[in-house]
Automatic annotation (TrEMBL):
Domain of life: Bacteria
Domain (Inosine/uridine-preferring nucleoside hydrolase): residue spans on this chain: 5-283
Underlying gene: rihC
Pfam families given in the database record: IU_nuc_hydro
Keyword annotations of the record: Glycosidase, Hydrolase
Signal among keywords: no
Organism: Staphylococcus warneri
Example of a GO MF term: purine nucleosidase activity
Classification via CDD domains: nuc_hydro_IU_UC_XIUA
GO cellular component: cytosol
Keyword Hydrolase among record annotations: yes
Name used for this protein in its record: Ribonucleoside hydrolase RihC
GO term, biological process aspect, one: purine nucleoside catabolic process
PANTHER family membership: INOSINE-URIDINE PREFERRING NUCLEOSIDE HYDROLASE, NON-SPECIFIC RIBONUCLEOSIDE HYDROLASE RIHC
Length: 302
């Protein structure tokens, strides 16, 4: 049974890997890609989504979303992903691709409203678009099957000692989403830190096909924490989880977002002992099989 998806993203090198797998996997039906300000600015994240669409000759529509957080000042991660957000590969730019004038929030609302069955939202950037969707059109909540979020941490952060980048970028938006009472899955830093991809494994990715070669070139310019030990492909795990959730250890938890702390703004406060959980936290891999799962998914790409 195929899973219908909306991908909300800020490409981003690890976003590119997640989008590549999602656009080509037979179990997944991507209805649209929406872009958000995050790893780089909204014009660059939108351009990068279009480059990936063109690379795969995909007909999935791309819609431009929020250009800044709800309240906070914009930050970016160009030092991690490069100035363009996807440095390292010479993509052919679409020559006649025109972005729709409809904004991402309206486009998501329309697709959800018209769908005959609930759709999963995969959010692999700051949660600004999703928060605006829920706040503006609360009536479409019933059309959302679940929101699978790459963001947060039950331990240490990666942009501050306690905050993960996607949540830190727009904590107010994250607060709206985590308190939406929708089915949520949080895939945070914990999982990627325990499920790294070695540099030797990246060579296997490179040799798989044209997509693997493209991704391996991007990975050479990807500057995650402790990159000498291996790569943390955070966003990829949203797609691997949807393909086979049994590969991972998942726990119920109550997750709240720190909004006021001078030193802790954007932290995800994860209570695994709460009697009122509001999401499932994907915490660690069952085994190293996630690497094989990545190669299996990559094999569906060109």
């Amino acid at each position: 049974m195929t899973i219908s998806l909306i991908i909300d993203t800020d490409p981003g090198i690890d976003d590119a890997a997640a989008i590549s797998l999602a656009l080509n996997h037979p179990q997944l039906d991507v209805k649209m890609i929406t872009t958000v300000n995050g790893n780089v600015n909204i014009d660059k994240t939108t351009a990068n989504a279009l480059k990936l669409k063109y690379f795969f000759n995909s007909h999935v529509p791309v819609f431009k979303g929020a250009s800044r957080p709800l309240i906070s000042n914009p930050v970016d991660a160009a030092e991690v992903h490069g100035e363009s957000g996807m440095d390292g590969y010479d993509f052919k730019s679409p020559t006649d691709e025109k972005i729709s004038p409809m904004n991402a929030i309206e486009a998501m609302k329309n697709v959800l409203k018209e769908s005959t069955s609930p759709i999963t939202i995969v959010a692999i950037g700051p949660l600004t678009n999703i928060a605006l969707l829920l706040a503006t059109y609360p009536e479409i909540k019933s059309k959302i099957k679940q929101i699978v979020i790459m963001g947060g941490s039950s331990g240490r952060g990666n942009v501050t000692p306690l905050a993960e980048f996607n949540i830190y970028c727009d904590p107010e938006a994250a607060n709206i989403v985590f308190n939406s009472q929708l089915p949520l899955v949080m895939i945070g830093l914990d999982l990627a830190r325990q499920a790294m991809f070695s540099h030797e494994f990246i060579e296997k990715i490179k040799a798989t096909n044209q997509t693997g070669d493209m991704l391996s070139q991007l990975f050479q310019h990807y500057r995650t924490e402790n990159v000498h030990e291996g790569l943390k492909l955070y966003d990829v795990f949203t797609i691997l989880y949807l393909i086979d959730a049994d590969l991972f250890n998942v726990f119920d938890a109550n997750v709240q977002i720190e909004l006021q702390g001078i030193l802790t703004k954007g932290a995800t406060v994860v209570d695994f002992n709460s009697i009122e959980p509001n999401c499932q936290v994907v915490h660690s891999p069952i085994s190293n099989y996630y690497q094989h799962a990545f190669l299996q998914a990559l094999a569906h790409c060109k």
